[in-house]
């Protein structure tokens, strides 16, 4: 009975392993499996973003170890902090870079990009100057945009109504 129980656990473990989807990241400027990248990366694909209702950097920070996003100053006053390092209080450049498709947004302080129309979000922890340029001493956040579907038409709509008069609508149309 003990042997049968052990093999049942082994089969159950294999079934659970088979359900894990591979996530491809571009943290080192090439397509690599998240499981094989030799740096500390947290990646969120479209399915994860939808499942956990991730809508901005504050939501990403809640699910990423060693990453916080303080949004104390309102919608555009947030500060990303990776491994305890963020923007200096003197108003200098941030040590955390925020990128869209590998292109620097210029200033991580005050940026909380939305996740609508995003294929993947990658949070790379640790110094990334060789990959993302100078000033990315604490890490980098890279938004990878969803590519157009060239086979068929797609439409997606979303929105939000919140307190203090916040209204937001979003739309995406893609096709050949």
Describe the structure.
This protein is an alpha+beta fold. The protein has four helices and eleven strands. It has a five-stranded mixed β-sheet. A two-stranded antiparallel sheet has the order 1-2. A two-stranded antiparallel sheet has the order 4-5. The longest helix has 17 residues, at 2-18. It is globular and about 40 Å long. Residues 1-18 have low confidence and may be disordered.
Explain the layout of strands and helices.
Blueprint: H1 2-18, E1 24-25, E2 32-33, E3 40-45, H2 46-51, H3 57-62, E4 67-70, E5 79-82, E6 96-100, E7 103-104, E8 118-125, H4 129-132, E9 139-145, E10 154-162, E11 166-174
Features:
4 helices; 176 residues; five-stranded mixed beta sheet; disordered N terminus; single chain; two-stranded antiparallel ribbon; globular; alpha+beta
Describe this structure in a few short sentences:
The protein has 176 residues and is α+β, with helices and mostly antiparallel strands. The protein contains 4 helices and 11 strands. It has a 5-stranded mixed beta sheet.
């Amino acid at each position: 009975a003990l042997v049968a129980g052990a093999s049942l656990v082994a089969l159950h473990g294999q079934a659970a392993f088979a359900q894990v989807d591979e996530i491809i990241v571009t943290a080192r400027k090439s397509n690599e499996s998240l499981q094989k990248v030799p740096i500390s990366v947290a990646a969120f694909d479209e399915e994860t973003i939808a499942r956990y209702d991730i809508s901005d950097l504050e939501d990403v920070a809640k699910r990423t170890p060693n990453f916080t996003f303080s949004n104390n100053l309102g919608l555009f006053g947030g500060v990303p902090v990776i491994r305890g390092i963020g923007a200096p209080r003197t108003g200098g450049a941030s040590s955390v870079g925020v990128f869209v498709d590998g292109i620097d947004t210029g200033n991580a302080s005050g940026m909380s990009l939305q996740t609508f129309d995003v294929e993947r979000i990658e949070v790379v922890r640790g110094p990334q100057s060789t990959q993302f340029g100078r000033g990315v001493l604490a890490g980098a956040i890279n938004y990878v945009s969803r590519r157009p579907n060239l086979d068929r038409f797609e439409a997606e709509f979303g929105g939000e109504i919140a307190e203090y008069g916040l209204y937001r609508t979003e739309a995406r149309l893609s096709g050949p």
